[in-house]
Amino acid sequence: MTLTSVRENLKESFCIHEGQNLIAASDLILKHRLAEIPVVDSKDRVSGVLDVFELINHLVQLKDINKTIPVDCLRRRINTIGIDEPLENAAHFPVDRIVLDSSEKYQGVLRRSDVIRGLVKEIKMFNSILNQMDIGVGVLSANKHLLYANRSFNDVSDPKIKNHLNISLDKIIDVLPDGEKWMDNIPLRYNYSKDDHSVVLQYYPLNLGKENIGVLVLILGGNNLQEFHSIVSDSGIRKKAELKKIKKTFPNIVIEDPKMVKAVQLALKATKTVSNVFITGETGVGKEIVADIIHRMGPRAGRVFLKVNCAAIPESLLESEFFGYEKGAFTGAAMEGKQGLIEAASGGTLFLDEVNSLTMPLQAKLLRFLQNKEFFKIGGTRVQHADIRLLVAANCDVKDLVKKGRFRQDLYYRLCVIPIQVPSLEERKKDIAPLSMHFLKHFCSLNNSPKELHPNVISLLEQYRWPGNVRELENLIEQLVVLVDEKVIDIEHLPQDMRPRNKKTELKIQVKVENLIPLKDAQNLMEQEIFREALRQGGSTRQIANKLQVHHSTVVRKLQRYRTAIA
Asked: Is the overall model pTM greater than 0.70, yes or no?
């Protein structure tokens, strides 16, 4: 975040024009005590930079000091910055910058001193803003030293300031865990009370990559507590902690896309109840994983968990598989009878996948069991009891089956207390790249065959529809790892239907090698061709920089270098 741009901090605008002589240049350099000065053409575009060393060299050698500035006296490599860019962009490289507008016209020189003054001004502005807040704001270093405190923070933590509630800095720091125990991006919250007064302490880890560099501390009290509860709720913090716990329980799970996160959060809510759950989604989206989360994150974790694909059981065996049978119940029955799935899952969880394939008679019997937790085995007269958590899934719209009379409405409402819709892979595009990398790592390790995915491949995978969802993606990555001989998997290795069909969107660069030359020379030749094509397509140097994804100064420098070759 930045409060000011280059425009607000541009103090000086001096330059010389190509037609001026060396005396004018030296006068300007001496007047402003400059190390270098920009030279502009008749269209106010910067053609180069004249530095003081080159100027002295030419003044010593030339007899005619009224001669216009020689072209070879100019340095073509210049440091530029856009006039509307954030000031912080100039802080990355501490050098004077030539300021240009959107049309590449010269606007002035941004000195290093201008950047320092501007950044100091920003700090003062931020400090002023934070001091207007009733919320205490403090920043601790990774070693738990106080780096910054606004006025409200000092009012609470400074013992010299008489306040209705003082909490020492030592107490604020003592509750913090050690650095290695920090949970990534999960805030901690503590309540502190004294003499009928209370404050809330909120701690946010400040992480730079994987390194913890400090802690942001917020202190809220009095009227701010009511407002705080509406802004930062316990449930939001708890959800982050629960998602982290899921990833710890399921180390191979990938949950990045917000739509999938929403489905998983609903599954977490289901773990705290005993209600039936109906999971819907296309084939291959991961419905079984959602069922795993509900079972293993709930109170029945560690108990029996049976998974049954209803479509895989022959229709004639469905009833006996579900409810079991007594000995001698029918011809061919086992002499000792058989325990059914419901009885075997008692005390634990039973997951019925493709529940939409159940016959109507079995649906009626399952409904009766759900109503009173009682059932009869085939051939039995004694009432059986079972305590199970029932999770069901379907890969179609069961409501539509209800309308068509192929699924009992009363059973549907018994089963669908907590509906969870698992989005298709096409709907959760942010999961495609991490899933691809996860499968790649797995199959490379399994086959002892290190491979990489080219960025263009990842881009195409994110554009593909994935009718087979996650299962199709997993199959594709395994196929590529096994069949591709090259280390880098590229577009040409993908199935034909995944490759770009619109030739206008394909990147085509033809390279024909007839003779071997030094690699550096070859690279220069390639760069010349790239910049020749860039000039042919037209546009400003900034537009070319955006297309090539390089800094604007790089484009200016390269064009100056290859000017003769690509003319």
From this structure: no
